[in-house]
Write a structure and sequence with these properties.
This is T-cell surface glycoprotein CD1e, membrane-associated-like isoform X2. It is a single-pass type I membrane protein. It is found in: Cell membrane; Endosome membrane. The protein has about 400 residues and is α+β, with helices and mostly antiparallel strands. Helices cover about 40% and strands about 30% of the residues. Strands 4-3-2-1-5-6-7-8 form an 8-stranded antiparallel sheet. Strands 9, 10, 13, 14 and 15 form a 5-stranded antiparallel sheet that branches. A hairpin with a 7-residue loop joins strand 9 and strand 10. The longest helix has about 30 residues. About 20% of the residues are buried. Bound molecules: 2-acetamido-2-deoxy-beta-D-glucopyranose. 2-acetamido-2-deoxy-beta-D-glucopyranose binds next to strand 1.
């Protein structure tokens, strides 16, 4: 699989004097200046608000339709956040955030990009060339996940996993290619071949244990404010499709929060309801999260239940939504409508009083009509509820016609 690097190697060897020096017979890993780079950087602690250790991963998907057609898809990820894309037309790294370059210099990034150009150009060709020897059957797909993870700011751990047709195939461990358990003799054979290429292994190892952790540390520092962004959740409850006769499915929706860790529970007072079920966390388009938490209860027992949400953005003030909050809201709306109606009636009678007194009818029309909408209806409707607006405008019309008549 990493014949790619081998070919890449051949190419670098034939490429101009500067790279010749790099891979001269006396070359050793410390001379891989574009991989091992300058200024050693201390990996400082990163306080990422209760997040799991963050990883930087490069995900590569190679689809091979036949002997002459291959497609490559490559992206870079910092934890859940995409930070890079490979532009296979231009052969360039696309940095998706202003801080995606991390702490690497332009020069270092250029060298890295050059290495990737050679790799993404050669790898598919090499796979095609070896496909029959390795018994890869068209159409097939290879996936490679390459990256590293940071633990408590210091120790890091690297990984390189390869999959064939969506199943684990091999990995890079220490300084060897190892077939994945269950990948069979095919993977064994591929690894045997790959393990012969000592220099390729050294490059891969250097990328894994040196380049990646340093790049990750730089990204964590540069992208800190984005990663630590705190966005409060919005919470609402609704009724789900009935789980059976006499039963209710209470749904608590928690949306728009960041970062990812969140605690949501259906409660009765201070008592957690053990039947509470969580959905998968789903991403919103604005890089926040959505979660749905349900509880299946007997219809008579729903009253008094609350949905409680704890999140780092709330500063210890949990959000609590009452299941019966909705009827209360309805009652409030009804009260508001009632009060408004009473006011309308009063104003109506006031107008009638005015019209029955000294002013001639024509004058009432011109003076009264413009006054009362602004009197009763502020510039913008108070409620977004269309029902209420309809009531308002019905009264409006009613009143208008009464005054007219
Ligand atoms: C190879 O696959 C591509 C994409 O499916 C197709 O367009 C092309 O015609 C195929 N070529 C051959 C020689 O089969």
């Amino acid at each position: 699989m990493l014949l790619l690097l081998l070919l890449l190697f051949k190419k670098i060897l034939c490429h101009g004097p500067s790279t010749m020096v790099l891979f001269s017979p006396s070359f050793n890993l410390s001379q891989l200046s574009f991989l091992c780079l300058s200024a050693a950087q201390v990996l400082g602690p990163h306080h990422l608000a209760a997040e799991e250790p963050l990883s930087f991963r490069v995900l590569q998907t190679f689809s091979f339709a036949n002997h002459s057609w291959a497609h490559t898809e490559v992206s870079g990820w910092l934890g859940e956040l995409q930070t890079h894309r490979w532009d296979s037309v231009l052969g360039t790294i696309r940095f998706l955030w202003p801080w995606s370059e991390g702490s690497f210099s332009k020069e270092e990034l250029k060298n890295l990009q050059y290495l990737l150009q050679l790799y993404f150009h050669s790898f598919p060709q090499q796979v095609q060339a070896f496909s029959s020897q390795f018994q890869f059957e068209y159409p097939f797909e290879l996936q490679i996940a390459f990256g590293c993870r940071m633990h408590s700011g210091k120790a890091s751990e690297s990984f390189l996993n390869g999959a064939y047709q969506g199943s684990d195939f091999l990995s890079f461990q220490g300084n060897f290619w190892k077939p994945s358990p269950g990948a069979g003799s095919q993977a064994q054979k591929v690894c045997e071949v790959l393990n012969h290429y000592q220099v390729v292994k050294e490059i891969v190892q250097s990328l894994l244990v040196d380049t990646c952790p340093r790049y990750l540390a730089g990204l964590l520092e540069a992208g800190k404010s984005e990663l630590e962004r705190q966005v409060k959740p919005e919470v609402w409850v609704s009724k789900g499709s009935s789980p059976g006769p006499g039963r209710l499915l209470l749904v608590c929706h928690v949306s728009g929060f960041h970062p990812k860790p969140v605690w949501v529970m259906w409660m009765r007072g201070e008592k957690e309801q053990l039947g509470t079920q969580r959905s998968e966390l789903l991403p919103n388009v604005d890089r926040t999260w959505y979660l749905r938490v349900t509880l299946n209860v007997a219809a008579g027992e729903a009253a008094g239940l609350t949905c409680r949400v704890k999140h780092s953005s709330l500063g210890g003030h949990d959000i609590i939504i009452h299941w019966d909050g909705y009827p209360i809201l309805l009652i409030c709306i009804c009260l508001a409508v009632l009060v408004t109606l009473v006011i309308l009636v009063l104003v109506d009678s006031w107008f009638k009083k005015q019209s029955s007194s000294s002013l001639p009818t024509a004058q009432i029309r011109t003076s009264a009509l413009p006054i009362y909408p602004t009197l009763l209806f502020p510039q913008k409707p108070i409620s977004k509820n269309p029902g209420i607006q309809e009531v308002f405008s019905a009264w409006h019309r009613n009143l208008g016609s009464k005054i007219d008549s």
